[in-house]
């Protein structure tokens, strides 16, 4: 519909391109929007502004600069290019063979992988939570049209060498002898770190470098020589330099355009969506504190108000202090004065205008209150539309606050591994509300942050850019422990640094054998931070590989399924506070905490070959745990010998030749 374009499309063909915009009864075709800018931020108004250069073979366009034009493009004129989509591999050229990584881009583990046919990406089908596709399959980035760009750090595969870090170079900036090397449309030169060699390659043999990759040696293979170690160090330094340049360029562009924060609707209280209800208690159900109106600071931060201690807000009609009550911050919206500002590397943020004392109420986190079904639907919609910003916060087991479409200033608070604020769940008039409170004294002008404690739902890890000294590198990963300081505030050197490597204790991130049966093989690992346990899927009766942030049964009580508080160190048996009495004890053999099934010196020892009998109704309710107990007694002297063992085989229909 734009005059002078003159291009025609089938409706399905036009809709398959993301930058296509429907306008009234017509549409604006993708030749009038920069694809690179659209992928970064579809709502950015500058997507369709400025000089564009267009591919002469397909309907894609880019801003005519080195930041937007994808690497491997052939420039014909100022307004025309041939884009990398038209690369054709040469037969017999090993460097033109497509190669995929051997690990999942979501969970970083191997196994049966779903491989993208346009780039090296690979995923577990369960991690993406999708059905097995028929025919060719492409990852979300490739379907959206994302390409490598100049001045990007990438991992490159060459022959049988390991994945090696390199920088995508502009052909204008490389030596003449490299330019004269044979290369086709879609190929671009890369400069390898560590060796300073050049190579022409293409999209199917590179994938983006991410912050923290230099420490992920388990992906890149064992044995790091000096050249490769040097390459990792140079890549990490160069990546930070390029990121700083990109962030500074973005900040300058935003200031020139007087760019405002992304639009949202400001609301003062939580708004329920769908079937979600906002609870309202009767006055007779609201707790009454013992404060008096004559107290110096009734119900204040320094008082002994029982409601404040239990995170209950006083009600003006119930509290004995009446109008002098200082525990009604949520109801009266006694927020600190804050301002939204543009940070250098983390988008928009929030800072305080005046000083805030430790424990002070900063703001309430408000938004649309949705249920889990609606939450997953919104996350799926965001993934399908390449939306990377989430504002969801768990309210209780059935409700989530989503401050994305509607909320207040608190939605702009960034994450930090060393935050100056924290979230607290208070009961206000019978319902749960989330408040942000200061962890320390905060001077005016300081950015306000809190720890997101993010749980991944099928996405890859999100890089953390908080810059704290104890930064974990990724959202959702526990922050590092700072080394202890002496009285003068200087960091103390750890004694372990003075020991030889042979004397250092090696702590494995993951165990090698299944925690249930003790054998090796293809296992699934627990995603709970700090848990090293792995299991065979068959040992847990899992029909498919668990997706997302899966936690093993060691963290749930065997009897009720609630959060476990005490654990057997010999098997996945564990119990909550209510059920642990009498179930676990200190083993007399090695001093470890264990259940009675693993210690012949326990309170009820088993004789060799003896099977512990359990009530039939208990077997029906908890078959998996108790079947494991039975088989643990006879697995060492298989095949079954005693009548008890043979009876056990008959009970569970297991042949003696199994």
Automatic annotation (TrEMBL):
Gene Ontology biological process terms in this record: methylation
Phosphoprotein keyword on record: yes
All residue ranges annotated as the PWWP domain in the record: 150-212
Subcellular location: Chromosome; Nucleus
Residue span(s) of domain Post-SET: 460-476
Matching SUPFAM superfamilies: FYVE/PHD zinc finger (SSF57903), SET domain (SSF82199), Tudor/PWWP/MBT (SSF63748)
Protein name as annotated: Nuclear receptor binding SET domain protein 1b
Keywords, comma-separated and alphabetical: Chromatin regulator, Chromosome, Metal-binding, Methyltransferase, Nucleus, Phosphoprotein, Repeat, S-adenosyl-L-methionine, Transcription, Transcription regulation, Transferase, Zinc, Zinc-finger
Organism of origin: Cyprinus carpio
One of the Pfam families matching this protein, by short name: SET
GO cellular component assignments: chromosome; nucleus
Region of interest: Disordered: 479-504
Ranges for domain PHD-type: 101-145
Compositionally biased intervals (Basic residues): 490-501
Molecular function (Gene Ontology), one example: protein-lysine N-methyltransferase activity
InterPro entries in alphabetical order: AWS_dom, C5HCH, NSD_PHD, PHDvar_NSD, Post-SET_dom, PWWP_dom, SET2_Histone-Lys_MeTrsfase, SET_dom
């Amino acid at each position: 519909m734009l005059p002078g374009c003159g291009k025609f499309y089938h409706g399905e063909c036009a809709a398959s391109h993301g930058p296509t915009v429907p306008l009234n009864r017509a549409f604006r075709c993708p030749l009038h929007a920069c694809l690179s800018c659209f992928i970064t931020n579809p709502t950015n108004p500058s997507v369709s502004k400025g000089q564009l250069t267009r591919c002469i073979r397909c309907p894609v366009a880019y801003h005519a600069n080195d930041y937007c034009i994808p690497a491997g493009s052939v420039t014909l004129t100022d307004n025309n290019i041939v884009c990398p989509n038209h690369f054709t591999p040469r037969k017999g050229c090993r460097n033109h063979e497509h190669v995929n990584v051997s690990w999942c881009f979501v969970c970083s583990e191997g196994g049966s992988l779903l491989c993208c046919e346009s780039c090296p990406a690979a995923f577990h089908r369960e991690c993406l939570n999708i059905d097995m596709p028929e025919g060719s399959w492409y990852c979300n980035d490739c379907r959206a049209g994302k390409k490598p760009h100049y001045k990007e750090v990438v991992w490159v595969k060459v022959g049988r060498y390991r994945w090696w870090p390199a920088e995508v170079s502009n052909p204008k900036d490389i030596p003449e002898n490299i330019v004269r090397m044979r290369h086709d449309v879609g190929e671009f030169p890369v400069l390898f770190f560590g060796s300073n060699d050049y190579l022409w390659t293409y999209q199917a043999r590179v994938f983006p470098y991410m912050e923290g990759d230099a420490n992920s040696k388990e992906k890149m293979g064992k044995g790091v020589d000096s050249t490769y170690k040097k390459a990792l160090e140079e890549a990490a330094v160069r990546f930070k330099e390029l990121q700083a340049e990109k962030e500074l360029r973005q900040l300058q562009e935003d200031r020139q355009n007087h760019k405002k924060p992304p639009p949202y609707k400001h609301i003062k209280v939580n708004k329920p969506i769908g079937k979600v209800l906002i609870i309202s208690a009767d006055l007779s159900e609201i707790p009454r504190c013992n404060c008096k109106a004559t107290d110096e600071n009734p119900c204040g931060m320094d008082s002994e108000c029982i409601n404040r201690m239990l995170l209950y807000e006083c009600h003006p009609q119930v509290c004995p202090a009446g109008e002098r009550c200082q525990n009604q911050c949520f109801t009266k919206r006694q927020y600190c004065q804050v301002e939204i500002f543009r940070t250098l590397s983390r988008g928009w943020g929030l800072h305080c205008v005046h000083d805030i004392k430790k424990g002070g109420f900063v703001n309430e986190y408000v938004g649309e209150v949705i249920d889990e079904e609606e939450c997953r639907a919104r996350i799926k919609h965001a993934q399908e539309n390449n939306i990377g910003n989430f504002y969801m916060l768990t309210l209780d087991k059935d409700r989530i606050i989503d401050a994305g479409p509607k909320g207040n200033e608190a939605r702009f608070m960034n994450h930090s591994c060393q935050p100056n604020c924290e979230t607290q769940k208070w009961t206000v008039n019978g319902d749960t509300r989330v408040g942000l409170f200061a962890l320390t004294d905060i001077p005016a002008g300081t950015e306000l942050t809190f720890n997101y404690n993010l749980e991944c739902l099928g996405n890859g890890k999100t890089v953390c850019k908080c810059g704290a000294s104890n930064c974990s590198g990724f959202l959702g990963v526990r922050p590092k422990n700072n080394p202890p300081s002496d009285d003068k505030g200087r960091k103390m050197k750890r004694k372990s640094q003075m020991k030889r490597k042979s004397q250092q204790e090696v702590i494995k991130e993951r165990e090698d054998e299944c925690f249930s049966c003790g054998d090796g093989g293809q296992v699934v690992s627990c995603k709970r931070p700090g848990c090293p346990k792995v299991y065979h899927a068959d040992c847990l009766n899992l029909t498919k590989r668990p997706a997302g942030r899966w936690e093993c049964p060691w963290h749930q009580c065997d009897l009720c399924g609630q959060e476990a508080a005490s654990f057997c160190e010999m098997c996945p048996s564990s119990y909550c506070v209510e059920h642990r009495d009498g179930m676990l004890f200190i083993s007399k053999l090695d001093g470890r905490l264990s259940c009675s099934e693993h210690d012949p010196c326990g309170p009820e020892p088993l004789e060799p070959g003896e099977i512990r009998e359990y009530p039939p109704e208990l077997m029906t309710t908890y078959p998996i745990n108790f079947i494991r107990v039975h088989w643990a007694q006879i697995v060492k002297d298989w095949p079954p010998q005693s009548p008890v063992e043979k009876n056990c085989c008959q009970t569970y229909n297991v042949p003696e030749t199994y």
